Amino acid sequence: MSAEPATPPGSEPGSTGPRKTRSAKRSKAELLDVATAEFARIGYFGARVDEIAAKSSTTKRMIYYYFGDKDGLFTAVLERAYADIRAAEKALDLSGLPPREALARLIDHTLRWHAAHPELARLVASENALDAMHLRQSPRQAGTNLPILQTLADILARGRADGSFVRDVAAVDLHLQMSAIALFRVTNRPTIEATFGVRMDTEESLNTAIDDLTEMVCAWLSTPDPTK
To answer: Which residues contact 204 (CB under 8 A, 6 or more apart)?
Structure first.
């Protein structure tokens, strides 16, 4: 890879600081939008920096300036995708709801978010094929994803306190169970339809999945652990 330019390619020496900052933010956001679509469409190995640059209003040199290289770009795409879903979860403001209602709303949101943003599941699938090499090196990931575990821990603690839930379940385990269903419905949609003739891209299918998962999780949490 060529060395990074000292200043952004195409910047105007006479432009003001705030104007350059806004322009840089727009350029980076556009590059991330295009890169997200490309990485989600054909994966990390299939995506090409040249093609991403060609589909944006900027240049390949700008990609190198802002993100360093293809790995840096893919890391930024992953970080933004996780930040977006975590921000949407935070906006739900579940702390004031009864535990069972809060959990039901979170399950509903989780499955609907992934259905509406299938790029996240596809990006995660690509990153798993790479043994999470980008996320392992990202200093932002732990802080970005911690809030959802805190939210679930609060719901579970309040549920145990008021008797809604009796099973002692770790927040991370519950999060993984919910995410597994949401991600599966995106990444396995074509093969499920081809194999079983079942379409998971309909509103009816989504509503059924949300109702079933909510019922199963709440029943599980409301049942004592027979091994204890």
So the answer is: none
User: Cβ–Cβ contacts within 10 Å for residue 142, how many?
Assistant: 9
pTM, two decimals, is 0.87
Q: Are residues 62 and 87 in the same domain?
A: no
Question: What's the total number of domains in the chain?
Answer: 2
CA-CA distance, 76 to 93, in Å (whole number)?
27
212-226 CB burial, b ≥16 within 10 A, e <16: ebbeebbeebeeeee
Residue 129's Cα: distance from chain center in Å?
16
- Give the structural domain span for 111: 78-221
Here the CATH number for the domain that contains residue 181 is 1.10.357.10
The answer to the question of residue 4 being in a domain is: no
Please provide the size of the chain in residues. Answer: 228
Plot region of 132 (φ>0 → left; ψ -120 to 50 → alpha; else → beta):
left
CA 23 vs CA 27, 30, 64, 171: distances in Å: 6, 11, 17, 41
pLDDT one-digit tens code per residue, 164-222: 999 999 999 999 999 999 999 999 999 999 999 999 999 999 999 999 999 999 999 99
Determine the Cα–Cα distance for residues 53 and 60; give it in Å rounded to an integer. Answer: 5
Q: 106 with 157, same domain?
A: yes
